Amino acid sequence: MPKIASGEKIQLIAEGEITGEDSLYSERTGKRKFGTSTYKVYGALAGLQEEEEAVKPYLLVWLHGMDNGIELGHLTTIQKRLRHRVIFVVPMCPQTHKGTQFNWGCAFRARDDKKQLGFVHGKLHEGYLMALTSKISDLAYEFDAERVLVMGYSMGGFGAFQLGGFAPDAFDVVMSVAGYGLGTLEPEDAMYGAPQPASSEIFEEFLTGIASELSRVPIVLAVHAQKDSMSSFRDVKAIIKSCKETQAKRGVLHTAELLEVEDRWADSDRNRKKRRISGHHYFNFSLLDESSEDFLWSKLRKYLSQAPLRLELRPLHIARVGEEPRVGFKCPRCNGPRYMGPDEFSTKAKNLHYRYK
């Protein structure tokens, strides 16, 4: 396992490229079929005592928005807010591949992105989601991570919902800040100008097939401002509501919560030249500034202290949206993946093949 040099606050410890080589998708097609997607792995342990540096780390996946990155200082601040040793995995969204563009696992052609509606007309790309979640799970196994978290802002928040719904058993926390879903409930004459009722039908399918799977993640948090005119508060509220309703039906005691940013903070980010007043600029308020402690981090630390540990499994495959849910896992005691529905998985996870950490 790579180690962080003594005295370093944050350090690059690995980098690579997301490939489909180990995925069932590649085995079926023989092709990757998504653009180049690199990643970097950083270790951070700022502000910790010596005994705290030796504990099992959290593995936190940060998904960028349209700005294509995050400052290392911001990662250090997030690690300090968590008050825990953190391994950060910072992938880059796939580049355009043979005319197909990507908003993380949402793939679309240029003709589908008119008025920036790729998130409405696009499709979830099983191959990329599978390859990325497989890499995340491999890294969590390599670093013996105590918890696995995925977070993102704006488009990254959309990606966090995608990953959490695609492979819910791989994550302890899914957190979307200023994110959105596939499709939208917003009226055609408001916000996006997305065609209705088609966009609502796409969104409802997203809720049924992906968002409801989020209920299996122990902690699902959404941070959003009603004033946000670039990402729909209405849609995110519906995602969290769907998650809660599915949790109640399944009788699971998980956390799904929408943390609402007040209007006065919705455009509070600093250092923006010619900043557009859009209600979409609350990155610092919700994640970095002192305000974030009471607003977000104290709550998340509490939830993490109470949530059950995830299964020590590495996901390989989940069925496409609309199919019967089916997850495959690589088992350390047997050869190859096994497949089962979520109910069977919950029951059989305690047998000789599957164990809790």
TrEMBL record:
<dbReference type="InterPro" id="IPR000801">
    <property type="entry name" value="Esterase-like"/>
</dbReference>
<dbReference type="Pfam" id="PF00756">
    <property type="entry name" value="Esterase"/>
</dbReference>
<protein>
    <submittedName>
        <fullName>Ribosomal large subunit pseudouridine synthase C</fullName>
    </submittedName>
</protein>
<dbReference type="InterPro" id="IPR029058">
    <property type="entry name" value="AB_hydrolase_fold"/>
</dbReference>
<keyword id="KW-0378">Hydrolase</keyword>
<keyword id="KW-0732">Signal</keyword>
<dbReference type="InterPro" id="IPR050955">
    <property type="entry name" value="Plant_Biomass_Hydrol_Est"/>
</dbReference>
